[in-house]
Amino acid sequence: MSPNARIPLSILDLAPVSAGSSAVDALRDSTLLAQEAERLGYHRFWMAEHHGSVTFASSATSVLLAHIASHTESIRVGSGGVMLPNHAPLMVAEHYGTLATLYGDRIDLGLGRAPGTDPVTAAALQRGSGDLRDFATDVADLVTLLGDREAPGRDGLRVRALPGEGTHVPLWMLGSSLGGAQVAAVLGLPFSFASHFAPDAIEQAFEVYRSGFSAEAHTAQISEPHVMAGVNVICAPTTEEATHLATTARAMRTRIMSGRSAPLDPPGEDMLQDLRGASPLRMPQRSSALETSFTAIGTPEEVVTQLDTLVDRYDLDELIVTTYTWDPQLRRRSYELLADAWGLTPR
């Protein structure tokens, strides 16, 4: 596939904290990454909401995005995503409406249904149950709150988001199951699948979304289905170095799935062996073939070949990639190598 024919490429960042560094360092590095992403020509820079984590520093997502937006000029900045059961729709509309008021039409609002944390922290945060019907209602209310005052659907909604009303912040549905796909389809919103960590249901979810999509819903923001998928990426000058650097991400996943979260480990197979032997792992059973297919590791050319295959197989409209390395400079280098190989146009 020629560079000119390739779909938009974006970045998902969780402000990862590396061993030996602090949250201050992580937030500084995320800011530097956003500026580099803008320079390189990436389409979006999204940050995801996580709570109670020593691995990620992205709990106050809207605050972080305000900081990122103030240090960039043109790249789209947004949430990937806001975990809506933790928040009242009015507050989300006010926060992201304020961002749009400050920074114009480059703010995205991605919405998820998961708690984004452990059960105890979720209970302390939780405003709603995450029930699919309640979630869909909250999303519809957000569309209305960020729309025009006289728009359809406002009947019965007695509150206003000020600032926010009339900003028409674009909404994205995020999901790793059929539930998010159904909500995105019924409400006529773009859909981003979390295939970078839970790829199993991607084919079914895209089928549900595409077949059930309604452009006639009063909440619809697009005229036809639009899908994006997440991919883990490590680019390096050689396959051997990329494989070595990827041990950090493998260790992170092992730690999270086994309930032993920690800052990102330096790379090394010895570290992985020590981690595996520390205690029995409580990891969910997933399709190893699918999981591998949404992890692209190697030289820029090798990674691009793997991404092109995913784009063709799932008929993707956009890709969003995430990279975990212990050294933030090598994380930025990975994104730079990918941008060049993908054919992005520098800003």
From TrEMBL:
Q: Which domain of life is it from?
A: Bacteria
> What family does the entry list?
To bacterial alkanal monooxygenase alpha and beta chains.
Pfam families of this UniProt entry? Answer: Bac_luciferase (PF00296)
The residue ranges of the Luciferase-like domain are 14-312
Database matches in InterPro entries: Bact_Lucif_Oxidored, CmoO-like, Luciferase-like_dom, Luciferase-like_sf
Locate the transmembrane regions by residue number: none
Q: Which CDD domains match?
A: Flavin_utilizing_monoxygenases
List the protein's name. Answer: Alkane 1-monooxygenase
Organism annotation: Mobilicoccus caccae
